[in-house]
Specification:
Blueprint lengths: L1 H24 L7 H47 L17 H14 L3 E5 L3 H13 L3 E6 L2 H13 L6 E5 L2 E6 L2 E6 L2 H5 L5 E6 L14 H5 L3 E9 L5 H10 L7 E4 L8 E4 L7
Parallel strand pairs: 1-2, 1-6, 2-3, 6-7
Antiparallel strand pairs: 4-5, 7-9, 8-9
Helix pairs in contact: 1-2, 2-3, 3-4
């Protein structure tokens, strides 16, 4: 909420600046009275449109914050978390309250044995809490950023969920995927020793700022480790990179159905992978 207030104040300042600039650009002297009056009317109309636009933007952000908070509040009794709750903001790297509620009930309904997550954070705590509520399963969360992994580990400890999650810190290394050279997690040691298959794959890393198609390797690398009826969730589904990534995935020797979860912020994508005993 403080960020929102600061944003509104900043935008209010831009309106004041626009008024001052207009005063400099349109001195009182010069032109007929009718021309000056006409220009003044145009200026007032422009400023009114600017105020309305800024107000609508602030209201959208406020509605998003409230929606996220309401969903998280409704989820809290089910999480049964003691201690410090990690942030579920509609801004930044944390998942939203809406996505948190969706993921929690998805885990409760599907009862996965293994959730595999690329990119740790508040989602890791959410997955661990849902698995604990099921009384079975675990989440493996892969993270390349040591500080980010440390924060997540601390949250798991504070919420007494460490037994339900395994944090794997691994660097991003240059690798080749078809015609693409990308920095991606060094997962060979982990996957060689992993006997379980993945029931739910949550793709939320590495960050898109590192490179184009930063998350593309997820399916090519982890496809052999998916269970027969696995589902894949891709966060930030409306971004161009993620949409292009899914198009490239379709060129692989794998079939899947894609459902945009447009009722959630950032429109994550749900990929349903049909059973395939040949994997």
């Amino acid at each position: 909420m403080p960020q929102l207030i600061a944003s509104v104040r900043e935008r209010s300042g831009s309106i004041d600046a626009a008024v001052q600039n207009r005063a400099v650009e349109s001195p009182a002297a010069g032109g007929t009275v009718e021309e000056q009056l006409s220009q003044l009317q145009k200026d007032v109309a422009s400023l009114r449109a600017l105020v309305i636009a800024q107000n609508e933007h602030a209201q959208r952000k406020l509605r998003a914050s409230l929606s996220s908070a309401v969903n998280l509040i409704s989820l809290l009794p089910h999480l049964k978390i003691d201690g410090v709750l990690p942030p579920f903001s509609h801004l930044g790297w944390e998942i939203t309250g809406e996505l948190a509620a969706f993921l929690f009930h998805l885990i409760r309904r599907r009862r996965p044995k293994l959730v595999f997550e690329l990119g740790s954070g508040s989602s890791t705590i959410l997955f661990a809490a849902a698995l604990r509520a099921n009384g079975m399963g675990r989440v493996i969360s892969v993270e390349h950023d040591p500080e980010h992994r440390r924060r997540t580990a601390q949250f798991l400890q504070d919420t007494e969920l460490s037994d339900w999650a395994a944090l794997v810190e691994t660097p991003l290394v240059e690798q080749r995927f078809g015609s693409l050279d990308l920095q991606w997690y060094d997962l060979d040691p982990l996957l060689r020793g992993m006997s379980e298959t993945i029931d739910i794959l949550f793709v939320d890393g590495p960050p898109g700022r590192i490179q184009p198609l930063s998350r593309y390797p997820a399916l090519p690398v982890l496809k052999p480790h998916l269970s027969e009826q696995a589902i894949v969730l891709v966060d930030d589904g409306r971004r161009d990179d993620e949409m292009r990534m899914v198009e490239l995935w379709r060129e692989l020797d794998i079939s899947f159905d894609v459902e945009p979860l447009s009722f959630l912020p950032r429109s994550p994508l749900l990929l349903t992978v049909p059973a395939n005993p040949n994997w």
